[in-house]
Amino acid sequence: xxxxxxxxxxxxxxxxxxxxxxxxxxxxxxxxxxxxxxxxxxxxxxxxxxxxxxxxxxxxxxxxxxxxxxxxxxxxxxxxxxxxxxxxxxxxxxxxxxxxxxxxxxxxxxxxxxxxxxxxxxxxxxxxxxxxxxxxxxxxxxxxxxxxxxxxxxxxxxxxxxxxxxxxxxxxxxxxxxxxxxxxxxxxxxxxxxxxxxxxxxxxxxxxxxxxxxxxxxxxxxxxxxxxxxxxxxxxxxxxxxxxxxxxxxxxxxxxxxxxxxxxxxxxxxxxxxxxxxxxxxxxxxxxxxxxxxxxxxxxxxxxxxxxxxxxxxxxxxxxxxxxxxxxxxxxxxxxxxxxxxxxxxxxxxxxxxxxxxxxxxxxxxxxxxxxxxxxxxxxxxxxxxx
Length: 387
What we know:
Layout: H1 2-23, E1 25-26, E2 54-59, H2 73-77, E3 85-86, E4 99-105, E5 109-117, E6 137-143, E7 151-156, E8 162-167, E9 177-178, E10 187-193, E11 205-213, H3 214-217, E12 232-241, E13 244-247, E14 250-253, E15 266-269, E16 285-293, H4 306-327, E17 352-356, E18 359-365, E19 371-376, E20 381-385
Parallel strand pairs: 2-4, 2-16
Antiparallel strand pairs: 1-17, 3-15, 4-5, 5-11, 6-7, 6-12, 7-8, 8-9, 10-11, 12-15, 12-16, 13-14, 17-18, 18-19, 19-20
């Protein structure tokens, strides 16, 4: 079913592009441009730094026991990510409790280890595939090919209760989430440093391990295979943290005394989203896979400049959404979006618009010869090759 859906999405994108080229309006063909960027305004929405956070993921050739205990030498050697921050970014308050992650891989699994400082470890949900973020939880998001469609979500609580979902596309673009999808072969483990669900004691933290099998993850990779040395996937992690009270000797989520409604949960993440929405895969971090073992030294993360082109196309997608809301149609040019050609001074060429009724496609050449990048009205990005 997943393979069929992926083929359909790719095929439909190709058909749309042909329709746009043959039967709809387009912007004038333009060469490379010159000029400065004065007075062009900020293209970026959400307003967060780009590129996002990154991590180099090394291999392990030792067996990994998935029990939530991170005492093995390979985990001790692996570097921690940066500490989690508020989902909206660094301008928000620093999270009350520290959260950080390590990653490793081998030919069978993508391994994730996390440490969540927590003075009051609690959980209530024990049924698989329930809405785990009603408890404090830890969440994983993976978009193997970076097109923002066909991606994975996984959540677990301190009981180790699991919820896995498959997203055909983000909710903003119509979803849907496939709740019946399962990560076959998944392994998880949790260790609580304290006593779970005991308000009478103060806890230190809970740690977890996740082993996600490549036989599932590779289904949405660009070439349906394991990562190769230097490949980069889009990944993010989130922690949902509720404020709590103690009622009749049990933890309960805290309520607003005036309204009686639950206080809003905190959302802490590895790579900030710029807004309270994890389903914007273009803002997730970059995980670069290295074939070196974790004991063999370091590899340097490299930023692929093609991502700059994709990011600018993404800003135009944001602008198109705003324009549609205001004008009930999509813009057919930069001018209609209030932008100037000089906004794209550092890129190979300015974007071209193809509009067909309620659909559009915007294209830009990449930095590499023969590469063209595309984005459509559903937010999917992809590249084509050829001169």
